């Protein structure tokens, strides 16, 4: 007489658990990669905002256009006279004071000083950002480079313009955004 055995053996259960574990590890890794990609995309969006922000400021103060040129690291411009327009503000600024205020505010924003954690650390802005502005007549090139999350190739390598490749420290995590415009 043969007995019919029903149910699962211990080996079958262990094999099923190993297969399940491999699937869960894959899903977990996919989640990590998706989070990194999302953060990289967010940084690209921030960089685009910062570049367009300074271009808008330069358009509003175009008599100082040539004086906006330079390399900025988030700490190169010291405090400036506040030139924000507001209700009840009677302080008028010269174009030079406005340029200094524009650059001061711009550098603070991309360095992350406008957003801080409870402990006081800068949490906004871009990681290790460097911005460069070149002005030739009315042609303006604004470049911003920052440190990305993942190692890839250098974001400025292969660019024909040496000004772009010279903005920021060359490494395998550098991301670069360059926008060329005309301000008249």
Structure description:
With 184 residues, this protein is of the alpha+beta class. It has one domain (10-76, 109-182). Helices cover 39% and strands 15% of the residues. It contains three helices and four strands. A hairpin with a 2-residue loop joins strand 2 and strand 3 (139-147). The relative contact order is 0.14. The model has no long low-confidence stretch (mean pLDDT 88).
Instruction: Please write the string of helix (H) and strand (E) elements.
Output: HEHEEHE
Q: Please give the domain count.
A: 1
- Major sheet, described briefly? 4 strands, antiparallel
Roughly what is the average pLDDT, rounded to an integer? 88
Question: How many distinct helices?
Answer: 3
Distance between the termini: 99 Å
Q: How much is the radius of gyration in Å?
A: 26 Å
Low-confidence stretches: none
How many individual β-strands?
A: 4
State the helical fraction: 25-40%
Percent of residues in beta strands? 15-25%
Strand order of the largest sheet: 1-2-3-4
Overall form = elongated
- Which structural class is indicated by helix and strand composition? alpha+beta
Key terms:
single chain; 184 residues; alpha+beta; 4 strands; 39% helix; elongated; Pilus_4_PilV; membrane
Question: What is the structure about, briefly put?
Answer:
With 184 residues, this protein is of the alpha+beta class.
Write the layout of secondary structure elements.
Blueprint: H1 10-60, E1 70-72, H2 95-111, E2 130-136, E3 139-147, H3 162-165, E4 174-182
Antiparallel strand pairs: 1-2, 2-3, 3-4
Helix pairs in contact: 1-2
